[in-house]
């Protein structure tokens, strides 16, 4: 069975919605406050979701447009993969090497330029190294990294796979 472009884009959108719904469930129902790295992981997931929704609704005929949407989605979720990998790395540092906790993300956004906020967040802080949630022996950033990596692989497959080319209709064939 060949999965169509629209179907895969729709599945990527649905996966992004499910991922965000789970993140919001953990935040608002379970009471887990997201650290700055968690917030930045969500940015890439939301980006993939928006791009995949647009691709699904547009359902372009042009292979160039299909690949453009897939490239943008891949770059978006690659951001989440990178941030999640950094998060896992921070959680696995020895306690004496964990960066100290600083002011929260809201304070940084209010007082620092965006470039400094990005630098501060990606450097991580002590709160990012705290493990608050474990499932099957793995922390939430590990599960996020696995989830984002699967979405990245699907996005890259969508980018690199062969699409059927539509036959070119010539003007003389029309009459």
Describe the SSE topology:
Elements lengths: L4 H24 L7 H23 L4 H29 L13 H7 L2 H10 L2 H4 L4 E2 L2 E2 H21 L10 H4 L1
GO biological process, one term: protein folding
Subcellular location: Cell inner membrane; Cell membrane
GO molecular function, one term: protein-disulfide reductase activity
CATH hierarchy, class: Mainly Alpha
* Residue fraction in strands: under 5%
Determine the mean pLDDT.
80
Q: Could you say which structural class the secondary elements and strand pairing correspond to?
A: mainly alpha
Could you please say which CATH topology applies here? Answer: Bromodomain-like
Cytoplasmic side: 1-8, 162-175
Family: Belongs to the DsbB family.
Keywords: Cell inner membrane, Cell membrane, Chaperone, Disulfide bond, Electron transport, Membrane, Oxidoreductase, Redox-active center, Transmembrane, Transmembrane helix, Transport
GO molecular function: electron transfer activity; protein-disulfide reductase activity
């Amino acid at each position: 069975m060949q999965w169509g472009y629209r179907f895969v884009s729709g599945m990527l959108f649905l996966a992004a919605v499910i991922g965000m719904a789970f993140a919001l469930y953990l935040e608002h129902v379970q009471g887990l406050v997201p650290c700055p790295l968690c917030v930045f992981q969500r940015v890439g997931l939301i980006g993939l979701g928006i791009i995949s929704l647009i691709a699904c609704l547009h359902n372009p005929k042009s292979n160039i447009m299909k690949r453009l949407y897939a490239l943008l989605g891949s770059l978006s979720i690659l951001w989440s993969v990178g941030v999640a990998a950094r998060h896992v790395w921070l959680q696995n540092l020895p306690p004496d090497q964990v960066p100290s906790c600083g002011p929260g993300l809201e304070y940084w956004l209010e007082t620092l330029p965006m470039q400094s906020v990005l630098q501060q967040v990606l450097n991580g802080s002590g709160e990012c190294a705290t493990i608050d949630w474990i499932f099957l022996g793995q922390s939430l950033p590990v599960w996020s990294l696995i989830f984002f990596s699967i979405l990245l692989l699907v996005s890259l497959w969508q980018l690199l796979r062969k699409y059927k080319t539509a036959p070119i209709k010539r003007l003389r064939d029309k009459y």
